[in-house]
Amino acid sequence: MDAMxxxxxxxxxxxxxxxxxxxxxxxxxxxxIVSLLSVAVIFYTLGxxxxxxxxxxxxxxAIMVLFVFVVMMLNLGPxxxxxxxxxxxxxxxxxxxxxxxxLIAEVAYLLSRAGVxxxxxxxxxxxxxxxxxxxxxxxxxxxxxxxxxxxxxGAYHLGKRERLEIQDVVDSxxxxxxxxxxxxxxxxxxxxxxx
Amino acid sequence: xxxxxxxxxxxxxxxxxxxxxxxxRISKKIAAIIGVASxxxxxxxxxxxxxxxxxxxxxKNSYTQVLWTWINVAGFHPRIAFYLDALSLVMILVVTFVSxxxxxxxxxxxxxxxxxxxxxxxxxxxxxxxxTLLLADxxxxxxxxxxxxxxxxxxxIGFWYSDFKNGLAxxxxxxxxxxxxxxxxxxxxxxxxxxxxxxxxELMRRATEQWPAGSALPIAAAALLLGGAVGKSAQxxxxxxxxxAMAGPTxxxxxxxxxxxxxxxxxxxxxxxxxxxxxxxxxxxxAIIGAATLLLGGCSALTQPDIKRVLAYSTVSQIGYxxxxxxxxxxxAGIFHFMTHAFFKSLLFLSAGVVIxxxxxxxxxxxxxxxxxxxxxxxxxxxxxxxxxAGLPLITAGFYSKGLILSEAWSSPQGSAILWLAGVxxxxxxxxxxFRVIFLVFFGEPKTPVTKRPxxxxxxxxxxxxxxxxxxxxxxxxxxxxxEPWFTRLLHTALPSVGxxxxxxxxxxxxxxxxxxxxxxxxxxxxxxxHRRRQWVEVLVGNRAGKxxxxxxxxxxxxxxxxxxxxxxxxxxxxxVDKSDAVDTFYNGVADLNKLLYRGLRRTENGQVRxxxxxxxxxxxxxxxxxxxx
Amino acid sequence: xxxxxxxxLLVRRNLIFTLMSIEVMLNAAGLAFVVxxxxxxxxxxxxxxxxxxxxxxxxxxVGLALLLQFHHQNKSLxxxxxxxxxx
Lengths: 195, 630, 87
What we know:
The structure holds 3 protein chains of 3 kinds. Chain A is mainly alpha-helical. Helix content of chain A is 72%, strand content 0%. In chain A, helix 1 runs antiparallel to helix 2 (25-45) and helix 2 (25-45) runs antiparallel to helix 3. Chain B has 27 helices and 2 strands. The longest helix of chain B is centred in the N-terminal third of the chain and has 32 residues, at 164-195. Chain B has a two-stranded antiparallel sheet with strand order 1-2. The interface between A and C is large, with 76 and 59 residues.
């Protein structure tokens, strides 16, 4: 069990490093999926099989697929790869690496002070999780559902094409006033309303 | 009757306020009536009070009228209270009477000037302050009057303020007297700190009890008060402001800078004579200052072409006589000379004013001449006053007062032959310079035609003062000439009498003889040089030594030059050097620091997301570190 | 993992990578929670992880929609291009 944990952990870290250093977006996404899957394995070794499953299904399955769809939609070609190469000079890595290193050091210090070492790989089953969800954390569940609803509505609105056209707003002030629209509600008519 | 005392300062003060508030809207006639009538009322009340005072016998020969307590804090409670004794009685009588005559004069002479009611407002305020000064029963109220007269002096010297030079003269007067005032206020602090009161009589009593004669404290206090007196009375070394103060209107010069304000210093020393008695070195300094100033003034008056400047230096010189009297302990003699000086000096100024007006505002005596036929009254007035000033024997007031001073200077225990000699030389110089003016202005060929003659409002004061310049001395006849020292006897109820060491009838006669001799020599020399052989004067001044001496005396013995080099130039240099204010750099530095910080912080807001994320991360790191390690 | 995600967030200019780094960080936070829950034998860690998952999903959808708009506006995915709110 321990060995599996360490292997999965190594894979996760390696994959994450790959994620943040790739030039091609799709490559990075694939590495990210690998990272997520190895984290799922870690969850399983920790005795949370339900969460491991959830990680694979929702995170690696739905969210990453969403990412892939968007990347495909954006059609980022070799030109972006070139730009990435230009942007990712080693000099850029210095500052963030220092910050992250200090952060790791602090957290490590914190953990070492806590004096842990209670080893229990006792599995916490899904049943217990479910009971806790619908018991003490009921309000959290409701809030999460409202959050998802908000995200749904927001994503729908933000994804529409004819909105938030800054050029349009600047050019068609007159038409806007004439058509009675403003930034929140689109006006009716107007010659520059392109689809 | 004595209860009317407070009205003497109050009425002029009230009229000054009235004139200040509504003066612009009332006619000149009404303004003059208000201005003159208030002083007339004060004069009448003074005369009534004199009657009452002399008639009654009061405890301690004084009367105090308390109005209210001014300040009451931590054991310091000066009152608004007026103290009437022989000294202050004589002084307010002279001041109000002469002020009344001068106000009457100026009602006519100031008619052509703009700011008529403003003039009367200032003059009334001046009289109110002067009377407050004289009647004050504590030094703080005295200082209030002191400052008041200083203010009015400034306002009146710079009366015609549209001419910048007048403003400069006013400023110079104010600043120089300020130096004296500062010394005086420090003296007041010292007195209060050590004796615990500023009430004059009480102060004198405590000083005699607690301070041994000749110790450091009375010397310091007396020296500081002397500093104030020297400033206000234009004595050495603060005499430079008085000649320039002639820029003001002639009635102002007559009232303030001849008869009243400049004698405030004399009054102060006489009032606090106990302190000076307790500090013999300072009293000696008073005498020496007096002697030196009277010679300086006399020499300088000899060289001035401006008639008013001659009279200004003459005032400086005559007050030197008063200081000399105070310095040798002849307190009453000093006050006697003050009284006669008020009469003849204001008369000199008023008649000089008539002459100047008649000469169409010409001040230079070398451009005048032969006026004794044209301006008869002015001639007689000026002549009588000039004789009184010089001390024409037996028939002028000045003779008696000056004679008294000089005989005391000889015979007093603090007097000495040198001081007496200085006084006699002063008599010679006085006769010389005043008859120089008389011969140049009133005799000889007419040089400028007469354009204006005075009317009754001017004539009456001239006549009255002429009479007083003659008879004013008869109130105090010395032993050899009648022995009726009525005036000094009156004053000795308030001031100590002087000891008579080397006295004798013979000494008195001798002294009078020498004075007469000096007078005649001066008169004769003036006659020769300025009436008969004017070319000799050219010769005297023409050669190098004579020219240098002339220049030296003309500039008032170079004091203006010293002070310019010593004080004015360094301050101006410093102001130039510190043009971008050194103290301001600190405050500008604070603003600049803020601007620097702003510019620095501005660069952290560059609109880039990654930068903001980095700053959040950095902040987190810092906070975690703080939470961990602190 | 969190530090790696933070580094990636700070370095990459392309917005997609930024979002990916955020996902990495969320994942790492969730991992920490689950580990804590497993340590104390409580289901609370897993419950929190579920909430984190929901949050990540919501955030990703809205973020990607914004990203599409951004791309449409600026024709590139450069994060530094959107610095009009500088001081």
